Amino acid sequence: MKMTTEEAFVKTLQRHGIRHAFGIIGSAMMPISDIFPTAGIKFWDCAHEGSAGFMADGYTRATGEMSMMIAQNGPGITNFVTAVKTAYWNHTPLLLVTPQAANKTIGQGGFQEVEQMKLFEDMVAYQEEVRDPSRVCEVLARVISKAHRLSGPAQINIPRDFWTQVIDVEIPDPINFEVSPGGEASVTKAAELLSNAKFPVILNGAGVVLSEGGIAASKALAEALDAPVCVGYQHNDAFPGSHPLFAGPLGYNGSKAGMELISKADVVLALGTRLNPFSTLPGYGIDYWPADAKVIQVDINPDRIGLTKKVTVGIVGDAAKVAKGITAQLSDSAGDAGRDDRKALIANTKSKWKQELSSMDHEDDDPGTTWNQRARADKPDWMSPRMAWRAIQAALPREAIISSDIGNNCAIGNAYPDFDEGRKYLAPGLFGPCGYGLPSIVGAKIGQPDVPVVGFAGDGAFGIAVNELTAIGRGDWPGITQIVFRNYQWGAEKRNSTLWFDDNFVGTELDTQVNYAGIAQACGLKGVQVKTMEELTDALSTAIKEQMDSNTTTLIEVLLNQELGEPFRRDAMKKPVRVAGISAADMAAE
């Protein structure tokens, strides 16, 4: 059939069910965006392309449906870099559309020209450039298929002078691949190891959430073994939180119960996880990874198996199918060794940690430092971060989707939320970008309009995304609830300064005159400030009700004392030693 290249492109998007695009409008993409409304594709015009990418990530993670990132060639596309790398480490299948400078002028250093393929080559799961207008459908279908199969963002680069050309083309059907159940021998060996284990432990990662039926399959396997189930860092939704076998998240500010239980393991099933360092680093002073345990690692990407931990059995496959295959091959006596004692230990360890967590009001200082002590004395009537998180838990609906930004106050909250199902906890992941919390929860709400959503961010990280308040109040945008922890500092960096740089606070202080609630009001949204636990619980309850009943967006600015939790990188930081010495007197004269 004869059609224009932009018609062919949009028809291929329709065939693949891609209904949402996020970005900022530009002339290089206008031939296709012009027909988006007619095609049933909604273009969400954001305040910044970086936030647009986070919105796309949030939408796809909350729904499982692919969305699209698109913007003007050159600077519009370069603004996507952080979001694309974030999606890559979040294993989010996204379509990155990068209109390119025209073929006839590329290489001349023309207006808004940049090497867009080189820019993303180590940030996407796959990339391809359209070489001829007649191949636009073929390339687009393949890029979409690769994003799904490799579970990551994939890029199609198309010169802008390939639009508005007439071609004769057939619209391709989606290219689908059946996911692997893992190798026969490796699944059998895994089942044998778990059948003979005295203290098996399962560690669920993102792959369990992304795999269809992954949580249910891991639950059936855990129940057959009565094995405690931990989850990786920022993957609190990878197992039902109310289940008696759920032990909580490992890693930074995670669950002591999970750490204590996995330390006893003789066999660990790492299901759908690349075993990233933040999911296995010591926490609360506990070096919990069981060095002598046999490790079974399951991942769809063979390059990730055995990369961070010694592995006894590696299985390349889909988490749900592999878990089902292992369960089917367990021996009749699997899990029987010490079953009753193990179940009792799980229950007692969880109960002890729950009581400890509920009584934790303040952050400790390292020996030789006094910042947290001083912070409490400076504002004795202000909430601590842990008080705020307990107040939030009192109002947060069980079915809510939440997002968390990077930063100290958000990280302190890692041990608190749990969920009944997957695709509920959006976090920036191991690339660790600031500015993720607000845009990602907006994307989630676009995808799940009937579910309450709450975003979280510290005031430093929120400042990177604050301009999105100018975009999300428009009539066709959904109402969301955003909490900003306001302690007037870059907390993670300030904790580093207290530990390793003698309280030399370079670049850590924020403007105390800024009022984020006031900025929200100036943008036509609702903004409130709270100072007590009761005010926070009431404000969050009201905001969620108004979000669901009247599509109201509310920003809750939570005033906190300046207590600081654990540093992110004890593994990477140390106190510097000055050798030559530095003096301002050595500065060249003006």
Give your account of this protein's structure.
Helices cover about 35% and strands about 15% of the residues. Helix 1 (about 5-15) runs parallel beside helix 8. The chain has about 600 residues and is an alpha/beta fold. The termini are far apart. The model has no long low-confidence stretch (mean pLDDT about 95). Strands 3-2-4-5-7-6 form a six-stranded parallel sheet. It has three domains: about 1-170, 3-Layer(aba) Sandwich (Rossmann fold), CATH 3.40.50.970; about 185-355, Rossmann fold, CATH 3.40.50.1220; about 360-560, 3-Layer(aba) Sandwich (Rossmann fold), CATH 3.40.50. It is globular and about 70 Å long.
Explain briefly what this protein structure is:
With 590 residues, this protein is of the alpha/beta class.
Look at the structure and name the CATH superfamily of the largest domain: Thiamin diphosphate (ThDP)-binding fold, Pyr/PP domains
The helix tally amounts to 22
CATH topology of the largest domain: Rossmann fold
Structural class: alpha/beta
Number of self-contained structural domains: 3
CATH first level of the largest domain: Alpha Beta
Main sheet attributes: strand count, strand direction, barrel closure: 6 strands, parallel
CATH arch. level architecture of the largest domain: 3-Layer(aba) Sandwich
Q: How does the overall form come out from the CA principal axes?
A: globular
Spatial strand order of the main sheet: 3-2-4-5-7-6
CA radius of gyration: 25 Å
Q: Taking all residues together, what is the mean pLDDT?
A: 96
Strand content bin: 15-25%
InterPro entries: DHS-like_NAD/FAD-binding_dom, Sulphoacetald_Actrfrase, THDP-binding, Thiamin_PyroP_enz_cen_dom, Thiamin_PyroP_enz_TPP-bd_dom, TPP-bd_CS, TPP_enz, TPP_enzyme_TPP-bd
Domain Thiamine pyrophosphate enzyme N-terminal TPP-binding: 3-118
GO molecular function: acetolactate synthase activity; flavin adenine dinucleotide binding; magnesium ion binding; sulfoacetaldehyde acetyltransferase activity; thiamine pyrophosphate binding
Family: Belongs to the TPP enzyme family.
